Amino acid sequence: MTKQLSYKDVNVGDGVTPLVKEPTTRQLVVWAGAVGDYTPIHYDKDFARSRGLSGVIVQGQLVGAFLGQMLTDWLGEKGELKKLSCSYKGMNYPGEALTCKGEVTKKYDKDGEHFIECKIWAENPKGEKTASGRAVVTLPAGG
Asked: Which of 13, 33, 84, 97 has the most neighbouring CB atoms within 10 Å?
């Protein structure tokens, strides 16, 4: 069992524990079915190529979900993800590593809760940011 992260243990500038995902074409199809996004560039390589792409691409919202997973894994059971925003800057491809990262940018108390703000992003294997955003989380105070 992982130790619960607490507010007192987090400092501005700290990194969020990275998460590496390697989405498969099958996962893209399952995601499409789950969210109702049947855009062919996410599962039909011939269609994607006819649109000038090198192959199928990972859905932006799936990348956003990976960023959310990174945060909730980091927070532990007693932390709470309050807000997540993400914009898509580039493409990710199935079979390639997608690395989710984050950094603490602010911490404060409000109405008895302990807030942490983070900048978050996803990188392709070349280290290029393909998505970026912000998150707000709460953590238990700690001892």
From this structure: 84
CB–CB of 33/142 below 8 Å?
no
Cα distance from N-terminal residue to C-terminal residue, the chain: 19
* CA proximity to 67, closest of 137, 122, 126: 122
Can you tell me whether residue 140 is helix, strand or coil? coil
- Express the helix, strand and coil content of the chain in percent, nearest 5 each: 25, 35, 40
pLDDT, tens only, 41-96 = 998 999 999 999 999 999 999 999 999 999 999 999 999 999 999 999 999 999 99
Element (H, E) at 93: none
Q: How confident is the model at residue 143 (pLDDT cuts 50, 70, 90)?
A: low
Q: What are the boundaries of each domain within the chain?
A: 11-22+59-138
